[in-house]
Amino acid sequence: MPRKPDFIGIGSPRCATTWLYKNLVTHPGVYFPPALKEVHFFDEIGRDGHFSERGRWNYERGISWYENLFNGASSAQIAGEITPTYLADEKAPELIAQHYPDVKLLLSVRNPIDRAYSHYRYMSKMVTLPESFELMLKDSQGFKIKEAGQYYTHLQRFLKHFHRDQILIIFYEDVVNGPWQVLRDICNFFQIDVQFDETLVGNTINPAVDVRSQRIHRLYYWSRRKLRRDLPGLLQFAEFIQLPRLGRFISRWNRRPGGTIEPILRRTRRELQEYYAEDICQLAKYTGRNLDQWLIS
């Protein structure tokens, strides 16, 4: 039987959304589609997996296709998914509300400048991007490197369709400094008990790392993405023969140890602080949180 989602994570990319997924998926009262964090049902995606031939290809499959992803959930579980790019998609709020006006939404945010740089470094391992962060800011090639950090601006679109009590905002800094409290807040929001794998709670998940071979890294990334998004039946067979375990072993081997992260140029950081200043101030007023550090770090 098709099942409506009880919650949807809407973003933003590189703001601990994978950490949220890795922890929530271990909770016995929470259900995600098997081996699938990001469904990309309500946003525009590329037919080949990134941004060429953009369209709402999954949405065109119909709402039954989407709801069938959650039909494995028991009556004692809440079901949902996390697609970080929903936040910056102009039509996603309206489409979500059209089908699920009572759904609960998770929004995670961090210093938008650090988020943008992390996003650039992460995606540069997956696809060919401009050789510098500064060039990428001038031409984001559809990845919305700058735009994704305008949290308050995007949030306003959701607040046109959802009550603020339906949206839980999670700060990346809280995940780093107090992960258990973040998970307790989420459980309170979902009205479920606190039950998580303690070995995962304090871990850094999905860091932007240097790699030995970008070709191997991209092959692993896109093949895994293709299986999860378009060939779920084949994915189950691959899991049966433990192919993902081999893939993870190769991925770990391909990471380059001891890599250092080049800091953002001071001039670039100042320019981005000016770009985000008003949005940060509005978000601070909305949440009642002091975000001055985002403008002076």
Describe the structure.
It is a single chain. With 297 residues, the protein is an alpha/beta fold. It has a domain at 7-113 and 144-205: Rossmann fold (3-Layer(aba) Sandwich), CATH 3.40.50. 46% of the residues lie in helices and 9% in strands. The chain has 14 helices and seven strands.
Q: How are strands sequenced across the largest beta sheet?
A: 2-5-1-6-7
- C-alpha-based Rg, rounded: 19 Å
Fraction of residues in H or I helices: 40-55%
Can you say what the CATH homologous superfamily of the domain at 7-113 and 144-205 is?
P-loop containing nucleotide triphosphate hydrolases
Number of helices: 14
The CATH architecture of the domain at 7-113 and 144-205 would be: 3-Layer(aba) Sandwich
What is the arithmetic mean of pLDDT?
84
* Head-to-tail CA distance between termini: 50 Å
Overall geometry comes to globular
Poorly predicted regions are none
Characterize the largest beta sheet: strand count, sense, and whether it forms a barrel. Answer: 5 strands, parallel
Q: Hey, roughly how much beta strand do the residues contain?
A: 5-15%
Which structural class best describes the helix and strand composition? alpha/beta
CATH third-level topology of the domain at 7-113 and 144-205: Rossmann fold
Tell me the name of the CATH class of the domain at 7-113 and 144-205.
Alpha Beta
H/E order of the elements? EHEEEHEHEHHHEHHHHHHHH
How many DSSP E strands? Answer: 7
